[in-house]
Design goal:
Elements: H1 4-14, H2 18-27, H3 32-50, E1 57-64, E2 70-78, H4 81-84, H5 87-103, H6 115-131, H7 136-154, E3 160-161, E4 164-168, H8 169-180, E5 185-193
Helix pairs in contact: 1-2, 2-3, 3-8, 5-8, 6-7
Length: about 190
Amino acid sequence: MITAQEVKNLRDRTGASMMQCKKALEESSGDIEGAIKILQKSGSRVADKKCGRSAAEGYIGSYIHSNGKVGVLVEVNCETDFVARNEEFKELAHDLAMHVAATNPKYIDYNEIDPKEMKNKKEELKGEVEKENKPENIAEKIVKGRIEKHFNEVCLLTQSFVKNPDLTVEQLITEKIAKLGENIKVKKIIRFEI
């Protein structure tokens, strides 16, 4: 039997609705960690349904580092003005701005990467791997892995979120889509540094 306190504890940890928490706990036979994984999967399904919808409203999150030498503006879009005024949405925009200040991503996602840059990086890494005298089939896998690692580090959505390294920024946004019930997109990032 799932107790109200267990449901409340799960809700406090995830922000999901009481009903979602109860169903997840029942499905996981009372295992909190299992229930969290179930909620994350269901959040991904909700986000997949919402991702095609237009996100024309939004909020500009900002962050200025305590030393006054790094400042960031992040435009985060959603579907309605109602969600754009929501404190949790504003907090997401601020957290993303703080994340950008800390990690300095070059791109929002892979779609922004110039194909020439991708090709040049591949050639550079290929040259490095050739010097390691690896067999050709293994060298290809090494190059592919290093390219993926490099671009994951410079793309905002694939970076580990600074406040919770267990999540990527994309997973954080997916959770917010599931919770707020609207499509959310990072439209633009601007980082200033002295």
